[in-house]
Amino acid sequence: MNGSARDRATAVLARHGTLLLFLLIIFVFGTQVPAFIGPENLGNIIKQASFIGIAAVGMVFVLLTAGIDLSVGSVMYLGPLIAGFAMRDYGVGVAGGLVVAVAAGAVMGSINAFLIVVLKVVPFIVTLSTLFFFRGFGAYLTSSRQFDFPEEIRTFGLSSVLGVPTPILFFAVVALGAHVVLSRTAFGRQVYAIGNDEAAAAKAGIRVGRVKAGVYVTCSSLAALAGFVLIAQIGRLDTGFGEGREFDVIAAAVLGGASLFGGVGTAFSAVIGATMIQAVKIGLVFTGINLYLQPMLQGLIIFAAVFLDSLRASRLEMLRRRFIRPR
User: Fold this and answer.
1) Strand pairing partners for 164?
2) In whole angstroms, what is the distance from residue 20 CA to residue 34 CA?
3) Does a structural domain hold residue 8?
4) What is the DSSP secondary structure assignment for residue 177, as one 8-state letter?
5) Which of 105, 211, 263, 316 could tie 195 with a disulfide, CB 3.0–4.6 Å?
């Protein structure tokens, strides 16, 4: 293989390595346990991945600007909790509860945005702080007790439309909507521009602060929606709900191809990443791997995601430089 062919192969692996890895995982588990690739199980994988995937779509927006949001797990807890109070105490139906949850998520995202954009605090510090604040506020509201939702929410969560389970439908709508926003709107182009070079974007007239605020509001809104989708399937919420999910969400986005360094990724990155993580978890169950090893595997997945992202970014940068010709 000559140098140019090797470079092209390397570029393909760098850009599509995640999809190839996903297909490899399906192939390996499918050959060991044929039932793994059955339509029923594949549908179950997507359904169980839906709530992490919805939140990961929002995380992609933040990562594209080279930011981070560690508060998504707490937003997944507090947003649906506020909706639950509205449903139980004020008679708001499921549709109204969903709107309340998303609105509550938008408010929490606005808090993050204000601290990051206006007060110029580092996103890692801001969202780490609000992670504890939002969860603590939720624990205060419930006195650390389990909160039971009205039964109608379970009916909604277990329903389907034309045979498609509601969680999968929400996942698909969110992913497609985000894809349109990122690929077909001025806001989406500005998000990519900021992630690639924030200073250049500002010089080009892009209102960087407004765009950054928008991505944090989007991320928290979708995190609250994700929490509501999961609550609709189980019907109750305890103080541990959503705890640690921020790592699943970030890992899903990065594993799917979004870069921690900004400017790289699509809405479908979250779809691939979340589905891949869930496929690994269910595949381990099918193959009889000890369930207590799953947290260790999750840690390895997160490390691999960050490592591969760094390797991919440096490799693509090296390939781009080879095409630069001196004058």
Assistant:
1) 161
2) 20
3) no
4) H
5) 263
> Cβ–Cβ contacts within 10 Å for residue 166, how many?
18
The pTM for the full model equals 0.88
- 54-111 tens-digit pLDDT: 999 999 999 999 999 999 999 999 999 999 999 988 988 999 999 999 999 999 999 9
Please give the tally of structural domains in the chain: 1
* The one-letter amino acid at 253: A
Q: Is 63 left (phi over 0), alpha (psi -120 to 50) or beta?
A: alpha
Q: Is 203 exposed, middle or buried (0-12, 13-18, 19+ CB in 10 A)?
A: exposed
Relative to beta strand 147-148, strand 236-237 is antiparallel
CATH number, domain of 103, equals 1.10.3470
- Separation CA 289–CA 271 (nearest Å): 25
- Does 10 reside within a domain? no
* pLDDT one-digit tens code per residue, 265-304: 888 888 888 998 888 888 888 877 777 776 777 677 667 6
Nearest to 78 by CA among 225, 208, 218: 225
In a domain, 135, yes or no: yes
Q: CA–CA separation, 234 vs 240, rounded Å?
A: 14
Domain that holds residue 96: 39-308
DSSP state letter for 116: I
Six token digits for residue 242: 């959503």
Cβ 102 vs Cβ 206: under 8 Å: no
Q: How far does the chain reach from its first CA to its final CA, in angstroms?
A: 30
Helices 208-234, 94-113: inter-axial angle, 10-degree rounding: 140
Beta bridge partners of 161: 164
Q: At what angle do helices 267-286 and 166-184 cross, to 10 degrees?
A: 150
